[in-house]
């Protein structure tokens, strides 16, 4: 009933006036056509303005790729430190627990190596094998003169194992390294199946990642405190953990500085100071109730990325000031790579990291695979991706500081990379050699010619990295504006 009367009313309003002459009718129809044209023009203008606004507002999208421990998260931290200082300051206090865990891990790593040697020495002694009648050592390697001091240190540092477990529970799966994988391929994201993107939310909101771990911790520290002030109020659990660490401070330093312990580490070729998250030389500072992580500590802290973590910030420095950047930090272990391709679409730039110091190392998750070989495979696959054929790719040949120190210690590249041949074994030659290899792979495998952007980096050096990132930011911003037709 109601419907009929509405229709009647519309028909009445739209009906031509009664007694309309043919001239009036023509005039009326012209006016109506003009009104329609104006209305459509306005609609089109609004649509175009909306599109332009959307383009302008579209965040700059960057994807960080590379194997595990290549320095993706450390690069992201540098980016935050330089361009998004507010977020950086807000997260500072939360890194304290991560750094405490890193330190404890270092201690336990040393303790385990020393404990193995101690039991070997004890076993030899029990079997009467430690020396022959002339007092000559029979066991392979030096016979370490362990004393009661070492046994006592082992005992007194024991409680740190419980603290380690507590911190790992608190920080989630990212606090543990992956030690095996069922993923045989270096590039599981290659298959057509993986290119189909399911709901991204699942991964971005994963409760396992770095950001989530920090958020969980952050909720435990007071929100009322100024971000840069010392942390005064903490949760009871955090206090207990800190108490134990502070109580162990002198023993930690004593263990690390002990000449026999150092002798064991040298003999076992355990270069703990080169491992991710090394903080033993900072124990005095960290094992304190007032400890607040410095910028350098945070960049060096190790917390594995699980899944894909989205970091969204409006830059408050640099050319992009006021513009939103969206950075995706992915987990780099082989089992985490299957989902990478879901993020390839619509990305302005990829920063690909390869740690070039790793020519003699193997993947933690698969000890058969040389790290450099794995990086080459990854790089080839990323360069050859059709979806990324127009995407800007920037290569960071990272961990140059560790490469220098390995070469200074006398390591020879050709012992690990036979194709290096008789080239000069110095840092510059080695860096150029690796660079040319990556460049050649890019040239051979890219579906269409693309420029080769490369930077030699040590991203724990925040000052040098700031200079690199300025160049990178400008270049990515230009690409973004060009992609959005704003240049
Ligand atoms: N010495 C040195 N250490 C570095 C460098 N870059 C990164 N690191 C350290 O190496 C460790 C691993 O770096 P991350 O940034 O966590 O590595 P990632 O690529 O994010 O690793 P996943 O999250 O497992 O994929 C951290 O402790 C970093 O501080 C570097 O250039 N030199
Ligand atoms: Mg990471």
What's this, in brief?
It comes from Hygrophoropsis aurantiaca. This protein has 487 residues and is α/β, with parallel strands linked by helices. The chain contains 19 helices and six strands.
Query: What is the count of helical runs?
Result: 19
What's the alpha carbon Rg, rounded to whole Å? 31 Å
pLDDT < 50 runs, ≥5 residues: 132-138, 199-208, 221-233
Give average pLDDT, whole number.
Answer: 86
Q: What spatial order of strands do you see in the largest sheet?
A: 2-3-1-4-5-6
**How far do the termini sit from each other?**
58 Å
What characterizes the major β-sheet?
6 strands, mixed
Number of strands: 6
What kind of assembly state do the chains in view correspond to?
single chain
Shape by Cα distribution? elongated
Residue share in helices? 40-55%
Q: How would you describe this protein?
A:
This is Guanine nucleotide binding protein, alpha subunit. It comes from Hygrophoropsis aurantiaca. This protein has 487 residues and is an alpha/beta fold. The chain is 50% helix and 8% strand. It has 19 helices and 6 strands. The protein has a 6-stranded mixed β-sheet, sandwiched between helices. Helix 16 links the parallel strand 4 and strand 5. Helix 5 packs antiparallel against helix 7 and helix 16 packs parallel to helix 18. About 6% of the residues have low confidence. The site of magnesium ion has 4 residues, from helix 3.
Key features of this structure:
about 475 residues; binds magnesium ion; binds guanosine-5'-triphosphate; six-stranded mixed sheet; alpha/beta
Secondary-structure blueprint of this entry?
Elements: H1 2-14, H2 22-57, E1 60-65, H3 72-83, H4 85-91, H5 95-126, H6 148-156, H7 159-171, H8 192-195, H9 201-204, H10 210-218, H11 236-247, H12 249-257, H13 259-267, H14 283-286, H15 295-300, E2 308-314, E3 324-330, E4 349-355, H16 371-384, E5 392-398, H17 400-408, H18 427-445, E6 453-456, H19 462-483
Parallel strand pairs: 1-3, 1-4, 4-5, 5-6
Antiparallel strand pairs: 2-3
Helix pairs in contact: 3-4, 3-19, 5-7, 16-18
The structure holds guanosine-5'-triphosphate and magnesium ion.
């Amino acid at each position: 009933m109601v419907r009929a009367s509405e229709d009647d009313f519309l028909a009445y309003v739209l009906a031509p006036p009664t007694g309309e002459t043919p001239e009036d009718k023509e005039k009326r129809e012209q006016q109506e056509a003009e009104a329609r044209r104006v209305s459509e023009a306005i609609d089109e203008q609004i649509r175009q303005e909306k599109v332009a606004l959307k383009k302008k507002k579209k965040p700059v999208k960057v994807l960080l790729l590379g194997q595990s421990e290549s320095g993706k998260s450390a690069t992201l931290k540098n980016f935050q430190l330089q361009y998004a200082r507010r977020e950086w300051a807000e997260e500072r206090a939360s890194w304290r627990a991560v750094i405490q865990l890193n330190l404890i891990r270092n201690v336990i790593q040393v303790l385990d190596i020393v404990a193995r040697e101690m039991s070997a020495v004890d076993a030899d002694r029990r079997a009467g094998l430690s020396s022959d009648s002339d007092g000559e050592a029979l066991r392979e390697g030096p016979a370490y003169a362990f004393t009661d001091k070492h046994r006592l240190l082992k005992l007194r540092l024991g409680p740190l194992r419980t603290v380690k477990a507590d911190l790992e529970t608190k920080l989630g799966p990212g606090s543990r390294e992956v030690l095996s994988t069922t993923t045989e391929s270096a590039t599981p994201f290659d298959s057509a199946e993986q290119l189909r993107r399911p709901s991204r939310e699942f991964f971005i909101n994963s409760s396992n990642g770095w950001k989530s771990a920090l958020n969980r911790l952050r909720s435990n520290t007071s929100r009322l405190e100024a971000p840069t002030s010392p942390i005064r109020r903490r949760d009871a659990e955090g206090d207990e953990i800190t108490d134990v660490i502070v109580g162990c401070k002198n023993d930690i330093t004593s263990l690390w500085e002990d000449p026999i312990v150092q002798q064991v580490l040298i003999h076992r070729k355990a270069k703990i100071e080169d491992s991710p998250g090394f903080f033993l030389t900072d124990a005095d500072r960290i094992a304190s109730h007032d400890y607040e992580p410095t910028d350098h500590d945070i960049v060096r802290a190790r917390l594995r990325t699980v899944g894909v973590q989205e970091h969204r910030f409006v830059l408050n420095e640099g050319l992009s000031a006021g513009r939103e950047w969206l950075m995706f930090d992915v987990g780099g272990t082989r089992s985490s790579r299957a989902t990478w391709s879901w993020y390839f679409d619509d990305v302005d730039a990829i920063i690909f990291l390869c740690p070039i110091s790793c020519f003699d190392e193997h993947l933690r998750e698969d000890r058969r695979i040389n790290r450099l070989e794995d990086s080459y495979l990854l790089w080839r696959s990323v360069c050859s991706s059709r979806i990324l054929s127009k995407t800007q790719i920037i290569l960071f040949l990272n961990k140059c500081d560790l490469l220098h120190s390995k070469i200074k210690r006398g390591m020879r590249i050709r012992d690990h990379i036979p194709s290096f041949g008789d080239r000069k074994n110095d840092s510059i030659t080695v860096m150029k050699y690796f660079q040319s290899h990556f460049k050649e792979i890019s040239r051979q495998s890219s579906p269409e010619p693309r420029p080769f952007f490369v930077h030699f980096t040590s991203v724990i050096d925040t000052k040098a990295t700031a200079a690199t990132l300025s160049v990178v930011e400008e270049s990515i911003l230009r690409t973004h504006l060009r992609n959005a037709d704003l240049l």
